[in-house]
Amino acid sequence: MAEEKVQMRKQLGLLEGVAIILGIIFGSGIFISPKEVLEKTGSVWGALTVWAACGVLATLGAMSYAELGTALAQSGGDYHYINEAFGPLPAFLYLWDANIVFVPSTNAIMSVTFANNLLEPIFPNCPIDPLCQKLIAAVTICLLTFINAYDVKFTTRIQNVFMFTKIAALFIIILGGIAWMCQGRLEHFEDGWAGTKTSVSDWSVAFYSGIFSYSGWNYLNFMTEELRDPFVNLPRAIYISLPLVTGIYLLANISYFAVLGPVGVRATEAIAVDFAVVALGWLKWAMPTLVAIAILGGLSVHIMTSSRMCFAGARNGHMPELLAHINVKCMSPMPSLVFLMLISLIMLIPSNLTSLITYCTVVESFFTLLSCSAVLWLRYKKPELVRPIKVSLWMPIIFVAVLLVLMIVPVVSEPVAVIAGALITLAGVPVYLVLVRGQPKYLANVSVKFTHGCQKLFLTAVEDKDE
User: Fold this and answer.
1) Do the domain assignments include residue 37?
2) Scanning 61, 67, 391, 467, which has its CA 20 to 30 A from the CA of 114?
3) Residue 142 has what pLDDT?
4) Pair 294, 31: CB distance under 8 Å
5) For residue 338, which of 151, 153, 146 has the smallest C-alpha distance?
6) Which stretch of 161-175, 195-209, 277-291 has the lowest confidence by average pLDDT?
7) Which residues, 6+ apart, have CB-to-CB distance to 188 below 8 Å?
8) What band does 2 get if pLDDT is binned at 50, 70 and 90?
9) b/e sequence 350-375, b meaning 16+ C-beta within 10 Å
């Protein structure tokens, strides 16, 4: 019997692809962002307009990524597309920002939010000890990393359960809102444009908050090589997920406004829980649990997919060689998973991550813009490239143009945050020049010894190439 190749298995079908996209999108955004979108737009119909527009924008971006994901059918997502279109330095800087800030800080925030939703129902009238909160968050990150490293198939099956649980939670909210409105309680929509703000800056921030809730539509592209028949399942998963998300988000927000009204939405800190208290009767006790499951599922997907980006970067020599290794028993990128776990645990130490994320929000948007603009650049640079899916050019053009306009406002209104984010990114340039392009010989020798030691610890080997 021939030995199995050391490769990550193609074991993700259409259902798993949809579960990954919905799992990361249906994180905590829909349970947090409605308040900020309303505050920045000033009116009910203004907020609903932003939610609809963000859904359309995310769909255009996702369809552009369908072309990239089928034309450049390798794992790594944005990193791979930026590397192919614009070269190694921009791709490395994306990895630098992602691994130092975006991924670990997101993991830390989601795990802390999960801990809050877990503890508050158990101790409703007690202040939460920050140390207890962070210990639970750390255990959650470690447990989900272990599950992801141990068995990808088992992880995706759990993710399917998480997906249906999240959809069930949102459908409970939607049905509760419909039942509320069927009783004739429509007063909050009668003058829905009242109080609408005219500030471009406020509307820009509202769009950022809305887009944050849709973020994750590109994460399936990080795992292209593990999809069965990716040329079919990748675009289908995108086409199914984004319209479904947009419809559910719009209906959920309509339900929030119908039951709580604009005053209630502005006042709440836990919108789904407050909605349940007013509209769902005895079901209100289930809502904190459902929200916690939604966040846990989003964190699990984020850990799984982001490790593939790290793996792809290491395979191209932009990260330490060890991170491109695969566990020979589980066929998972175990070193990459452990590396991101350790960075995420470090991110739990600071008491406040908000400022760090604020600094890098514009930078992350810039790399998304750069990645999507790869569609346009590759059409010019590599017209001969085989494209199983070829989207109309107006889709990436509109996406890039809108994102570019949205990025201009923070540059004017929050220059300190933008400069700080740019400095974090530019700090990666000397790291690239010293450690990637011109690595000292003694450091290379240390790296080899460290890699050999970790190979024995993690039972890993270099990926076998297809002949």
Assistant:
1) yes
2) 61
3) 96
4) yes
5) 146
6) 277-291
7) 44, 257, 258, 261, 262
8) very low
9) eeebeebbbbbbbbbbbbbbbbbbbb
Kindly report the pTM of this predicted structure. Answer: 0.89
Q: What is the 3-state secondary structure (H, E, C) of the chain?
A: CCCCCCCCCCCECHHHHHHHHHHHHCCCHHHCHHHHHHHHHCCHHHHHHHHHHHHHHHHHHHHHHHHHHHHCCCCCCHHHHHHHHHCHHHHHHHHHHHHHHHHHHHHHHHHHHHHHHHHHHHCCCCCCCHHHHHHHHHHHHHHHHHHHHHCHHHHHHHHHHHHHHHHHHHHHHHHHHHHHHHCCCCHHHHCCCCCCCCCHHHHHHHHHHHHHHHCCCCHHHHHHHHECCHHHHHHHHHHHHHHHHHHHHHHHHHHHHHHHHHHHHHHCCCHHHHHHHHHCHHHHHCHHHHHHHHHHHHHHHHHHHHHHHHHHHHHCCCCCHHHHEEECCCCCCHHHHHHHHHHHHHHCCCCCCHHHHHHHHHHHHHHHHHHHHHHHHHHHHCCCCCCCCCCCCHHHHHHHHHHHHHHHHHHHHCHHHHHHHHHHHHCHHHHHHHHHHCCCHHHHHHHHHHHHHHHHHHCEEECCCCC
| Structural domain contains residue 8 | no
Domain of residue 75: give its range.
Answer: 14-462
In a domain, 3, yes or no: no
Average pLDDT over residues 330-340: 92
Of residues 85, 56, 44, 114, the one with CA closest to residue 375: 85
Say if 7 falls within a structural domain: no
Q: Let me know how long the chain is.
A: 467
pLDDT (tens digit, 9 = 90+) per residue, 367-406? 989 999 999 999 999 999 999 889 999 999 999 999 888 8
Nearest Cα to 397, choosing from 162, 113, 61, 9?
61
Q: How confident is the model at residue 427 (pLDDT cuts 50, 70, 90)?
A: very high
Q: Read off the CATH number of the domain in which 125 is found.
A: 1.20.1740.10
Locus of tokens 């009204």 = 261
Model confidence pLDDT, tens digit, residues 149-199: 988 888 888 888 888 888 888 888 899 999 999 988 888 888 778 888 888
Neighbouring CB atoms inside 10 A of 153's CB total 12
pLDDT band at 467 (very low <50, low <70, confident <90, very high): low
Please provide the average confidence, as pLDDT, over all residues in the chain: 86
Least confident stretch, 39-48, 111-120, 139-148, 303-312: 111-120
Token output for 357:
């994320």
